[in-house]
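Supplementary Methods S3. Complex input for the acetyl coenzyme *A-bound model.
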Amino acid sequence: MPQTIIAGIGHYVPAQTITNTDLLKFMDTSDEWIQERTGIKERHYAHRTAETTTTMGVEAAKNAITHAGIKKEDIDFIIFATLSPDYYFPGCGVLLQRALELDEIGALDIRNQCSGFVYALSVADQFIKTGMYKNILLVASEKHSFGLDFSTRGRNISVIFGDAAAAVILQPTEKENQGILSTHLHSDGKSAEILAMYNPGTHANHWQEKAYAHFDDAAIGEMFMSHAMIDEAQNFPNMDGPAVFKKAVVKFPEVIMEALQKNNFTPADLNLLIPHQANLRIAQFVQQKLKLRDDQVFNNIEKYGNTTAASIPLALSEAYQAGRIKEGDLVCMAAFGSGFTWASALMRW
Ligand code: ACO
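Predicted complex, serialized as structure tokens:
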């Protein structure tokens, strides 16, 4: 059975840099608070009108295609991971297919937030292993800046997110002991509302009951997005940060150890861990717990903040370009986020 390799990788970061101090224009926060609690110094925001999640994904895809040395006609399947799609539907996969003028190939959208890239990698791995596809384009992109609460009310979330895109080309190899060794996917929906954007949505819960209470028959048209929902910031991401933090520091080490043990390795064998860039304090906790040296972990959250689905491939792409990943290296990627979902992938580069 073939193994899946990353044959090409690339990323795209929008030009506009937003420092912590820039955010003071909108909300009551401080550079000191943000750096101390998250490690973030700055993030990038996409152009308000000219750039979308898909257009950024297209740029990252072009870079990955060039790096792989293939023609775009060689691509036989698209996977697009994002939580900030251009449209409620259809997904970004078809928009990317159109923008790159690809053949009428399949396009799959993945909605697993911070774990999106690792989930997508796992799906691609199964298609490659069965021989169904030979050149999968996997794109992860987020335009968070479009949908954040920039008032003081939303500061616990809005300061941590940034925009970016990254992409990989996945191919089969017959070489043994190369490429993706295993992937591990988990979920626990009990905590779904702890980190979520509730509306627009079709759920019947107390927010919609409130919407009914505010409006008469006209409420039918307001069910999808009412003034009450907007007043209560239900159209923005909501998060119980400390609850997410507590769960993340347990699940990250667990899912990394699961991948290592499955393949008879220990943390000492790792050349590089790429943790999802949610909070530098989480990554440092995981590093300590697994007794990893600084050179075994790659972080870039200080420059980009949390770019959700794009976070792992962006870090992977930067680490590769910086010469931190060489052929034969044992690389682990691990994510935890909204859902909750968490996941890991272990690969021999
Ligand atoms: N600036 C200044 N003060 C702030 C800010 C801010 N940006 N945000 C919150 N505060 C204040 C709070 O109001 C609170 O004040 P109080 O003590 O007077 O009530 C105080 O700071 C502490 O707030 P906490 O929320 O307890 O701060 P914490 O140290 O937990 O840091 C953070 C918040 C950074 C969000 C942290 O909880 C975290 O990183 N959680 C995990 C995030 C994560 O991993 N998310 C998953 C990925 S995202 C996804 O899946 C889409």
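The mean pLDDT is 94. DSSP finds 13 helices and 13 strands in the chain.
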